[in-house]
Amino acid sequence: MERKSFQDMTCPVALTLERVGEWWSILILRDATHGITRFDEFQKSLGIAPNSLTRRLGALVEAGLLERRRYNDRPPRYEYVLTEAGRAFQPVLTALYAYGIEHFPPEAPNVRLVDRESGVDVEPLLIDRLTGRPIDEEHTMFLPGPSADERLRALLERRNAQTA
Predict the structure, then answer these.
(1) Each residue of 88-105: pLDDT tens digit?
(2) 53 touches 39 (CB < 8 A)
(3) Which residues on neighbouring strands pair with residue 138, listed in sequence order?
(4) Which ranges constitute the DSSP H helices of 10-146?
(5) The pLDDT of residue 45
(6) Cβ within 8 Å of residue 151, ≥6 positions away
(7) Which of its termini does the chain have fewer beta carbons within 10 Å around, N or C?
(8) What local confidence, expressed as pLDDT, does residue 30 receive?
(9) Which of 100, 80, 103, 98 shows the shortest CA–CA distance to 134?
(10) Which helix (H) or strand (E) is 68 found in, with range?
(11) What Cα–Cα distance (Å) separates residue 8 from each residue in 14, 15, 18, 113?
């Protein structure tokens, strides 16, 4: 089955998925956030075929989430480091981590998210920068943006009326 492209959509979620929508890409970004930079380290961590890893690393470089840097001249070897856009993806990984811990908890997690000073496990919460209120169904709602079509406008109007 051929993969559908989302690049012409006006939805921020779809445009993000265009760049990181494959699970391998998200796991590569997770590993890069954990400090992995080299091809062989990614391959060992993920157990991914070399051709698949090459393709996905290239796509993440093209999307501006990773930068390919040469670290050895003979033979030429490269590492893949997070760009500013790649580092900005960390809250998404944190949200996936929190969702997974709550809804699909492993018997013994392989990683914990803790406060740097106290070492105590943290419970991530998405909040609005201006108000400090949680971004959840009780405090927020989606409204149609300038490019919303009539179908989306009607859908959001109906949804917001149900949750009011």
Answers:
(1) 999 999 998 988 888 888
(2) yes
(3) none
(4) 12-20, 23-33, 39-46, 50-62, 84-87, 90-103
(5) 95
(6) none
(7) N
(8) 94
(9) 98
(10) strand 66-72
(11) 9, 8, 10, 36
Q: What is the pLDDT of residues 129-139, one digit of tens each?
A: 999 999 998 99
Q: What is the chain's percent helix, strand, coil content, to nearest 5?
A: 45, 10, 45
- Give the model's pLDDT for residue 103: 87
Task: Please report where in the chains the tokens 């001249």 appear, as a residue.
Answer: 73
- How far, in Å, CA of 5 to CA of 9, rounded? 9
Q: Could you give the CA distance from residue 80 to residue 70 in angstroms, rounded to a whole number? A: 9
CB-based contact 57:80 (threshold 8 Å)? yes
**Whose structure tokens read 């300038």?**
146
Helix (H), strand (E) counts: the chain = 7, 2
Q: Does pLDDT of 162 surpass 70?
A: yes
Closest CA to 60 of 34, 21, 2, 92: 21
The dihedral built from the CA positions of residue 4, 15, 18 and 130, taken in this order, carries a sign that is negative
